[in-house]
Amino acid sequence: MIFSLLAAEASALLAGVLGARWVNDLYAANPDIMSFPDQVPRQQQRHARLLCGLLSLLFCYTVLTMRAADAVHLAFLLFFEFFLLVYTLTDFEQQVIFDRMLVPFAAAALVSLPLLGRDIPDHLIAGAAGFAVFLVLAVVTRGGIGGGDIKLIAALGLWLGTDQLLTVACTGMILGGVAALLLLVTKRRKRGEMFAYGPYFTVAALVLALI
Annotated Gene Ontology MF terms (predicted)? Predict the structure, then answer.
């Protein structure tokens, strides 16, 4: 167990450093889509510490609680946790989830389906249905749901399947709605301003993976 924890800690530190560099590079390369460009320099300085610390907690907890049946399951679970944490960070800070981060996440989900013995049709249906439903919601809400949220839900469907995606989507919408209402009441957001739902979906998925 001690060796496993040390390996988890080392993996978390490496993933945190590389993840912070990736996020910082994407922030620097896409200034036109940053929602709060004036905060980017300060945010870039804290990314490595923040990601290393949170990933250490996640990875060590995952190992301690034996959340995976074998090494292959564990590798995919840690990969899943890493990307969800990065999405939470970028969407919370700048209301953006980069396509360059969603593509490998979705691709890994497809690779995991046969390797982990998952119900392939169910997961493919979840991805397609999640994309379609949230695309309709984006049209109905006139942009209340962003393109990043649509693609995130589709990728989560590939990872989670229909039942778990429904749980994550409903939980995220409820939590996001409550948070948006509180921001309006406290006048920290005005009606019609952009609101990031992504972190509420990613946090819900993380909690589901850890319980």
Answer: aspartic-type endopeptidase activity
What Rg, from alpha-carbon coordinates, does the chain have?
17
58-74 CB burial, b ≥16 within 10 A, e <16: bbbebbeeebbeeeeeb
User: Into how many domains does the chain fold?
Assistant: 1
Residue 184: how many other CB atoms lie within 10 Å: 14
Question: For the segment 83-130, what is each residue's pLDDT rounded down to a tens digit?
Answer: 999 999 999 999 999 999 999 999 999 999 999 999 999 999 999 999
Residue 147 has pLDDT above 90, yes or no: no
**pTM (predicted TM-score):** 0.92
From CA 41, how far away is CA 45, in angstroms rounded? 7
Contact 27, 43 (CB under 8 A): yes
The Cα 156–Cα 116 span in angstroms is 16
Alpha carbon separation from 144 to 44, 72, 96, 137, 174 (Å, rounded): 27, 38, 14, 8, 14
Q: What residue numbers bound the domain in which 195 lies?
A: 2-210
